[in-house]
Amino acid sequence: MIRRVMGEVDVKLGIRQTLAKIDEAFAKRSATIKAPKPQLVAVSKTKPVELILDGYSIGQRDFGENYVQELIEKANDPRILDQCKDIRWHFIGHLQSNKINKIVNLPNLHMIQTVHNAKLAEGLNKAWEKVKAEKPESQQLNVLIQINTSGEDEKNGTQPAEATNLYRFVTEQCPNLKCHGVMTIGRFGHDYSTGPNPDFIELMKCHRDICSTFERDSADLQVSMGMSDDFVQAIEYGSTIVRVGSSIFGARAKKNEA
Known about the structure:
The protein is of the alpha/beta class.
């Protein structure tokens, strides 16, 4: 349970508890899984800047946002710019092609985790070419390929059978992008008493296929899966990035209430 202080969520405690669970799950992971210790991305969507400052103050650097406009506002917030100079923003929501130019110039943009088709990859590649021209220190834009492992129509992501082809397109046709691995937003509420999470199994299969096809070391290709309700299980399967929101920041308001 998240402790509340004076009616507010204790973000610092939430992060410490989450990191402790990550350590515990990582220690229990099978030695046959060659993957690094998972990185925590604190999902701060719909939450105020004050809570991000709290998390940053104890060393949390990676924060995830789902909505372009909200990320624009937070990344340019004077308090963030002044007090969080090495914050790393991860965009983890659906990115439309017409929003690309709004997001690539944001300060401290670290990664786009939701590249779901070649059109978006191509658009990001072209946009980052312009960023590099203005900021020579900006090398490649970090991205992950989003895969729709659950087959749900409302979920974005390339189909698992196309994951290798999309990875090939990004790595061979998009020189301004650096593809670090794969990502999924699995079906919510899997009952683990019935067996392993099929979304995690499917994403790890895609991961193996890409590593095999392109002769990549499995430990070098990131796997972003697992959220507040299942990140412990995701780590046991091989996740290297977990995206945790409500366990840290408390329940989120709905988008139209944010």
